[in-house]
Write a structure and sequence with these properties.
Helix 1 packs parallel to helix 2. Helix content is 26%, strand content 33%. The protein is an alpha+beta fold and 187 residues long.
Amino acid sequence: LSGGEAQRVAIARTLASDPDILLLDEPLSFLDIQLKREIMSLLRKINASGQTIIHVTHDYEEAIALANKIGIVENGTIIQTGVPQEVFHHPKSEFVANFIGIKNFYRGQILTHEKNSNLKTFKTGNISIYILTEEIVNSSGCIIIPAESISISPEQVNSSATNNFEGQIKEIIPVKLGVEVIIDIGI
């Protein structure tokens, strides 16, 4: 049997015993992209028919495509649970942020910037980033800077943007939908 056929047979054999919960441990990890899509479609149909599935994966794209609820495990402990949009847009730790592919995750201190304003300074390393927040001054926290919020230019840009940094490109890495650019701005 091919890899995809073997996976389908294994799932069918398990479903034949009418389990309350179907536990799958990395069921798509050794399949080519076409077979992976077919098995994912099959798993969505099985779940939609009412079958509870616990699907263990290290692939967050797989988790997004299949999950109704996600639990992130670190060192044997569940550290965050929720619907995919909640977990992927509001990671509670650096581990979760790294798992879901967020690169611009920073820990720091929230400092005052302007009185009677929600504009505050977030200090991380030697860099100060202006953020809009109602968080308490002099508290520790984390920020995520979405990649789509970052612009790169070889020369200074004349704009109203509050946060402008000079940096040095360290690496350009080809990725699925373009390139990932590693820039050293001091953090």
